[in-house]
Predict the 3D structure of the following.
Amino acid sequence: MSDVANASGISKRTLYEAFHDKEELLDICFEENIKKSEMEIDEIVKSSEDVIETMMRIYTKYLSEMQNANKSTVYDLKKYHPSIYKKIECKQAEDTNSFIPLFQRGVEQGFIRKDLNIEITIWLLKSQFRALIENNFPSDKYSAGEIIRIIMLNFIRGIATLKGLEKIEKLMSELKN
C-alpha cells in the first residue's frame, strides 16, 4: 500500500480512506481491468472483417499483455489473495463460454472446421495459457512472446479450414510488416 500511495502521490492514510485494505484495492483493480479488456475485445469483434482477423487481433492483444505481465503476480495472488485468484479463475471459465459464438460464426463463415468440439478446443487453448502463466514452460529458454506465438499459431492453424489458412497466412505476412 505504501508503494501505491507513493506512486499516486498521496499519503497512505488517504489511500486507506478510499480502500479498506489491499484486498479491496486489488479487487477493484481486477474488476476495472476486466471491464477494459471486455470493451477492447468487443471492439475487436465489431471492427474485424471475419473470425480469423478477430482471433489474430485478440492474439496480438494477449501477446502484448503477457509480455508485460509479472510472473510473480500470479504466485502472489494464489498465495496471499486466494479469493481474488478464484474470481480470476471464474472469469476465465465465463470467457470460455463467451468465445463459443465466435467459433460458431467462424464455422458459418467457412474459416473454422466443422468437425471440432468447440468447448474442448477452447478449453485446450486456455489450459496452454494457464500453463504459461503458472510458469510451466521453460521461460528461461524461451520468451513468453515466443511461447504465445507458437501456441496461437498452432491453435489457429489447427482449427482452420483451407480458406482460414489462406487468411492466416495473409494476416501473418501483414503483421510481419
